[in-house]
Amino acid sequence: MAPPNxxxxxxxxxxxxxxxxxxxxxxxxxxxxxxxGQRSGFLPQDQRMQWRANSGxxxxxxxxxxxxxxxxxxxxNVKFGFPMAFTTTMLSWSVIEFGDMxxxxxxxxxxxxxxxxxxxxxxxxxxxxxxxxxVGDPISDHNCWERPEDMDTRRxxxxxxxxxxxxxxxxxxxxxxxxxxxxxxxxxxxxSETLLRNAVKAFQLADNYRGAYSDNxxxxxxxxxxxxxxxxxxxxxLWGAAWLRRATQDDNFLNYIQSNGKTLGAEENINEFGWxxxxxxxxxxxxxxVLEGNVLSLDSYKTxxxxxxxxxxxxxxxxxxxxxxxxxxxxxxxxxxxHATSIAFLQLVYANYLSRTSQTINxxxxxxxxxxxxxxxxxxxxxxxxxxxxxxSYMVGYGNKYPQRIHHRGSSLPSIKDHPQVIACKEGSIxxxxxxxxxxxxxxxxxxxPGEDDLYGDDxxxxxxxxxxTYINAPFVGILAYFVANPNS
Length: 489
What we know:
With 489 residues, the protein is mostly helical. The protein has helices at residues 7-18, 24-37, 81-98, 104-124, 138-142, 167-183, 189-208, 217-223, 234-248, 251-260, 279-291, 299-311, 337-357, 370-385, 409-412, 429-432, 463-466, 470-485, and strands spanning 79-80, 130-135, 157-161, 322-323, 329-330, 361-362, 367-368. The active site is at residues 407, 458, 467.
């Protein structure tokens, strides 16, 4: 028997051994591979997700325009422009901040994933004073359970023409194109220039005709209730301008952020970040120039960013974030892991800014440094990869135990290569209702995740928990890249 004074040490040792040492590089590879499973359009010969095939090849024909390509946002077969643009911004930001930490082959794969989206987004702003915001009628799509390769639902094209406003989608598209122009600057300067030129055009459309796209009668029934603008279009205008400032260093965009901050509500909803609300991300992005001492007039953005980050730290007097008993960031509503990945991403980005400038955050009763932010982000990452009460990885295909019955049409139906006959709209119901695991593994997909009690039932019908989305994965790419290079942070 060990001496009594060794028991505390042995207990700590056992606890440390119970936490898995994760293979962040494998997780990064899979997080990027996931996007190949979400592709729409004509698939290339080097397509690695072999159970997928061509789909949506007629998209845009009703407008006599090619709108093929892009991504299906989640487990359905609709191309929603608003979340697709946000996904693209976050993939690009991942590469901008953490690309040099990626293995070279995964850096290339990440750029391929971005380009699949940007090639499509360029098409959406290719006509003057018009933006295409969606392809696919969601009502008919959601009434079917069919493979994208078999789609026979209406591929309605939703467009907004000036002077009708689409500031939110156009502003986010401007952000996506500006951010991606930075991601491609060294590897493909000509493409980068094309992206930046179109980013400016998209921003002008957003700013000249202000308003929410979901207020337009012509598109409301298609975009709502799925991706309505619930939180206003003002944040996307500032977000688009901030990314254009970052990409161009043009003082006109700096002046825009300075002069429009209060009128566009830059100080509102500072604790939110996701496809609909950009405020926390905007504040972190803009804070870079303040921390570097370049633009002190933007100090209110830094104050808001740090106020938000302080709320995430349980030991601070301003803490009000909710965590599950197992330690996962939790926000009510569906698809909770979108909050965990996007917030952890912001923590890591801000930690980088603090490290480079040797600064800390004053959270009232304590000072918080870069290392604290990184440790908090790592807890979210490790929880998602398996260090949780269920002992389950919420990334499909990673670890020994992961979701088998995800809410995803292509994954849950037999592949067209194994079952070449058409599976019509309602014929897919037997697969949806089956208790069998999905036949096709959507490697790298991160599902909506467990509830506030840390429980996960692996139920295909429970889409709030079992459906993956592109905007859950996109920030996770950057996070994993950081921990590939710094596994012990």
